[in-house]
Amino acid sequence: MKLNRGGSGEHGHHHHHEALKFSNFFFMPERPRDYLVLFTRVSVLTCLIFSVSLVLRITFLSSSSASDYSSSYGLRFSAVPQKALALPPTRSLGPINISHVQFCIAGAAETWLDRSRYTSLWWRNTTRGFVWLDKPVKLPKNNSDNRFSIPVRVSDSGWTRFRFSSSRAAVRIARTIWDSYQLNLPDVRWFVMGDDDTIFFTDNLVKVLAKYDHEQMWYIGGNSESVEQDVMHAYDMAFGGGGFAISRPLAARLANAMDGCLQRYFYFYGSDQRIAACVSEIGVPFTEERGFHQLDIRGDPFGFLAAHPLTPLVSLHHLVFLDSIFPNKNPIESLQTLTKPYNLDPHRILQQVNCHDRKRQWSISISWGYSIQIYSYFLSAKELEKPLQTFKTWRSLRNGPFTFNTRPLKPDPCQRPVTYFMDGAEDVRDSGTKTWYSVGDKNYGYCGKREHSRVTRVKRILVTSMKMAPEYWNKAPRRQCCEVMDGGGRRKEKAMLIRIRKCRSSETI
Ligand SMILES: *[C@@H]1O[C@H](CO)[C@@H](O)[C@H](O)[C@H]1NC(C)=O
Ligand SMILES: *[C@@H]1O[C@H](CO)[C@@H](O)[C@H](O)[C@H]1NC(C)=O
Ligand SMILES: *[C@@H]1O[C@H](CO)[C@@H](O)[C@H](O)[C@H]1NC(C)=O
């Protein structure tokens, strides 16, 4: 289920926008009468082109006056002129960077002021794209925290003529691919759709998209973590909240087909389902990338984020509905905390590394930049890789099934891990990092046994690592290794030093 897709009270003017059918409009005349018909059609077209250019000029004039108005109110809104669909783009060559992505964020006027807090966490001056709202909003002038840096656009009103069954906003949001494509911005290779509460880790998004040829048709994203959701909607579909990427050639076909699809698939619940159905008509399959996270779970996402799959973290979603990822912090503060290590070593964020302290018989699992779990007993690598189930399914709040295996949280507090959370990160010269983790309460209960209290005596852990090499994710993935270093001295019991490094070729965990 995709909540808060948009405000419920969208208004818009009924607007007729019939696409010209070029295939039937011109034809090779065979009989003399046909020449007359063709001549009439050519004249009609000439008139049309003239009037369209007139409309464009008028729209242009009115939008420039709208921006005069807006600057005095700190409003960032510009009218979208009705245009014919864009011409095929010129080829975009060279390695991909973030400027080749056009973001297409689904928002609603009613909730934008609040939701912009999420977008501003990842929006940079190199990101391109828009948040699409149902109507203009007045933004406060005070922009000291970079809140309103993502430009706002109002969806073309053409969407209002389509039928819908449950969510009217879903129609508008599905159509933002049309809105985005027809702007015809230069050098756009990918259109990346997301919700206003989707957090993108853009360096990793680029890393993942770099694997695919943007000149071909690709539809890339993630599905729901809750099997009940995949059964109800679809497995082979990119869930919108996790964000998904559409290469430019596919976006071109989709923009053309979208209005027909909206007519045919009016009975679907979400915008993402409408897009999936339309992509399927074009014959393009869904490509799953496991770093896109719809986060269709409830409760504490800790177990999931502490055992991320071995792939770059691309997105997070639904954090409004989940327990905060860091204890004693709200969702926004939590994300700000995660941003610190992310900025230092983006490709390593949440990457899991497991090792054992052989002397003390402890099992240790690090989710870099986020948390550390220590178990006072031995757990195999396979067990440590499995997320600890600290959460429930999204819709029915059950213990599963999920699209991955989970380990139940043991009823005995002594079997549960002692948890540590990142509270400091810094560069070590240019090529390495230090991150600190302090013991933090996840309310997993108290264990009085000696083995456990030996662990809880450790209050703080320092983790050192080299930054991930740029080619790390271009190779066959292999988890890195960690080793507990001998701290020595009297602080030995209270502090711990762990080094993350490449595994030796024959090394096992
Ligand atoms: C991305 O690459 C293009 C060339 O394709 C270049 O013009 C642009 O400056 C680059 N942007 C960033 C943010 O590196
Ligand atoms: C973009 O932001 C970076 C810092 O985040 C700054 O160094 C750079 O000058 C900015 N570029 C522009 C064009 O504003
Ligand atoms: C502007 O907003 C920031 C934070 O959002 C706040 O700290 C500051 O007091 C505001 N300034 C004014 C003049 O309202």
From TrEMBL:
Q: Which domain of life is it from?
A: Eukaryota
Q: Tell me which UniProt keywords the record has, alphabetically.
A: Membrane, Transmembrane, Transmembrane helix
Looking up InterPro entries in the UniProt record yields: DUF604
Q: Does the keyword Transmembrane helix apply?
A: yes
Q: Which GO terms describe its molecular function?
A: acetylglucosaminyltransferase activity
Tell me which Gene3D superfamilies the record gives: 3.90.550.50
Transmembrane listed as a keyword: yes
- Annotated TM spans: 35-56
The record, for Pfam families, names: DUF604 (PF04646)
Q: What is this protein called?
A: BnaAnng23960D protein
Q: Please give the organism.
A: Brassica napus
